[in-house]
Design a protein that fits this description.
This protein is mainly α. It has 2 domains: 35 residues, no CATH class; 32 residues. It is flat and about 40 Å long.
């Protein structure tokens, strides 16, 4: 998997930022393939990620409910 990052006007910081701002999840997939994770650990991580996402969604919905 190759990732292309464009450096414009010699601005390396912006190129690194765009590389780190991974929209398609390719860096996460590479990180997963680095080592084997047990199925139980994967389930635990998925559950924790789901809880984190749910809390974030609730927080954002409360923020927008108050503003309206």
């Amino acid at each position: 998997m190759g990732t292309k990052v464009v450096v414009r006007n010699g601005n390396i910081d912006m190129a690194l930022r765009s590389l780190k701002n991974d929209k398609d999840g390719s860096r996460a997939k590479l990180r997963e393939k680095e080592y084997y994770t047990k199925p139980g650990v994967r389930r635990k991580q998925k559950k924790e990620q789901g809880i984190k996402n749910t809390r974030r969604r609730e927080r954002m919905s409360r923020r927008y409910d108050r503003a309206a």
